Amino acid sequence: MAPAAVGATAESLSATAVERCISAALERWEPDILGLSHAIHADPELSGQEFRAAKRVSRLLRTAGFSFDEPQPRLPASFSARFGTGELVVALCVEYDALPEIGHACGHNVNAASAVGAALALASVADEIGITVKVLGTPAEESRGGKVDLMEEGFFRDVSLAMMAHAAAEDVMGGTSLAMGMWDVLYEGRPAHAAAAPFEGINALDALVVAQTAVALARQQLPPGSIVSLIVTEGGSAVNVIPERTRASVEMRSPSLKDLRVIEERVRRCLDAGALASGCTLKVTPTGNAYAELRQDQYLSEAYRDAMLTRGRAVAFNSEPVASTDMGNVSQLVPSIHPMLGYDVGGAAHHTAEFAAHGSSASADRAVLDGAFGLAMAASAAANDPCQRERLMTG
Predict the structure, then answer these.
(1) What is the DSSP string of 262-329?
(2) What is the distance between the alpha carbons of residues 161 and 136, in angstroms, rounded to a whole number?
(3) pLDDT tens, 165-201?
(4) Distance CA 375, CA 53 (A)
(5) How far apart are alpha carbons 80 and 98 in whole angstroms?
(6) Please, what sign has the CA dihedral across residues 37, 43, 44, 48?
(7) Is the backbone of residue 131 left (phi > 0), alpha (psi -120 to 50) or beta?
(8) How far apart are CA 36 and CA 53, in angstroms?
(9) How far apart are CA 239 and CA 190, in angstroms?
(10) Which residues partner with 134 through β-bridges?
C-alpha cells in the first residue's frame, strides 16, 4: 500500500479499507498485545513506580517503528512516542498502575493493552488517513494524576483528540466522572505523660477527632453528589503519651470542579476547627493533582459504539458519573473519550482482589482486542470525516 501525502483525508482510503487494515494489524500484533496485558497483570506496580510496565510498552512500540519524543516527560514511568506525520494528532493514553496489596484491581493492564493495541492499529493507516499517532505513558492515575503533569509539561499541546478505554464489568459509553481533590493533614501539639501530667500536653488526636466530627456534620450541607472520605494514618505512638502528632488523608469528590471548590472550603474550615479547639498547629498539603470531571466527545463516542457493534458488542449509554479519573482533565482540554470496556469479572467490583483475578482471562483478552478496534475505528472515522477533522484540528 503506497503512503499518501501528509494531511490526506477520506479520499485516500475508504472506510472499508481502513477497517480491513485495522483488523489485519490487530491480528498481526495480537500475541504482543495480549502478552503485554498478561505481563503487566502478573507484575503489578504501584502508582508512580510503573517502570517495568513502561519499559514493556516502550519496547513494543519501538519494535513497531514508533519514535520517542525529545524531551521526554519528567514524571518517572512516563513517556511520549509517536508514529506518522499527519496534522491530526491522535493521543492514546496508557495507564498501568496497580493498587497496594490487591494488584490490578482496576484492570489497568486491560486499559494499557487496549490503548497500545489501538496505537498499533492506527499506525497501519497513519499515512493514508493523515494522522500522527501519539502514545503517552501516563502513570499514577490512582494517586497523583500523571496525565495532569503531562498536560502541564505541554505533552497534550499538539493533540487533536485523546482516547483510552477502561476495564469494567460491562460496555458503557458517555459517562462522566467526579471531580476530586486529595489532601494530607498534619496536626502537631505537645506530648505529655497521659496519667502524670496530661494537662501539660496539647493533644493532636483531639484535633483530629474534632475535625472528623465537623466533617461528618458538614456532609448534610454539601452539594448533591459530593463525597468526603477521611482516614487516620497516624494517631499517636503510645496510649500513655498525649499524642503530639496525628495525620490523616482526606479525599473530596463532587460532580464538578466548581462544586469541589465549595467542598474544599468547607472541609478546610472543619480542619481549622480541630486546630482551634485543641491548640494544635495544622498543615494541609495537597497530594497530587485535582481531578476534573470527564467530558466525553459525542461524535467519537458514537463512532466507538458503531465500531463495537461490528465486534458483536452493544455498548450502553449512561451519563452517570463513575468514580474519578485524571482523563477528566484531559477531556477539558481536548475532545476525548473514555468508554468502559466490559468483560466477565464474576460480579466483582472495582478495587477488589476478586476483580483483579479476572484481568488476564479469555474474556479480558477479547475486551482488549475489541477495545483497541473500537478506539482505532473511532479515531479513523474522525480523520476521514472532513467536518470532524476540521473541528478537531481547529478546536
Answers:
(1) HHHHHHHHHHHHHHHHHT-EEEEEE-SPPBPPP---HHHHHHHHHHHHTTT--PEE--S--S--THHH
(2) 13
(3) 999 999 999 989 999 999 999 999 999 999 999 999 9
(4) 21
(5) 21
(6) negative
(7) beta
(8) 8
(9) 15
(10) 82, 91
CA angle 135, 118, 313 (to 5 degrees): 145
Each residue of 337-381: pLDDT tens digit? 999 999 999 999 999 999 999 999 999 999 999 999 999 999 999
* pLDDT for the residue numbered 369: 98
Beta-strand pair 179-188/131-137: unpaired
* Three-state secondary structure call for residue 93: strand
CA 9 – CA 384 distance, rounded (Å): 5
- The owner of cell 470525516 is 385
What percent of the chain has a predicted confidence (pLDDT) above 70? 97
Q: How many CB atoms lie within 10 A of CB 29?
A: 24
Upstream peptide bond of 71 is cis (omega within 30 degrees of 0): yes
Q: Please say whether the beta carbons of 306 and 127 come within 8 A.
A: no
pLDDT of residue 112: 98
Confidence band of 6 (pLDDT split at 50, 70, 90): very low
H/E segment holding residue 209: helix 204-218
Cell of 211: 475535625
Q: Which of 341, 369, 342 is nearest to 28 (CA)?
A: 369
Compute the residue count for the chain: 395
d(CA 94, CA 164): 7
Beta strands in 121-207 (DSSP E): 131-137, 161-163, 166-168, 172-173, 179-188
**Orientation of helix 204-218 relative to helix 257-278, angle to 10°:** 140
Q: Which pTM does this prediction carry?
A: 0.91
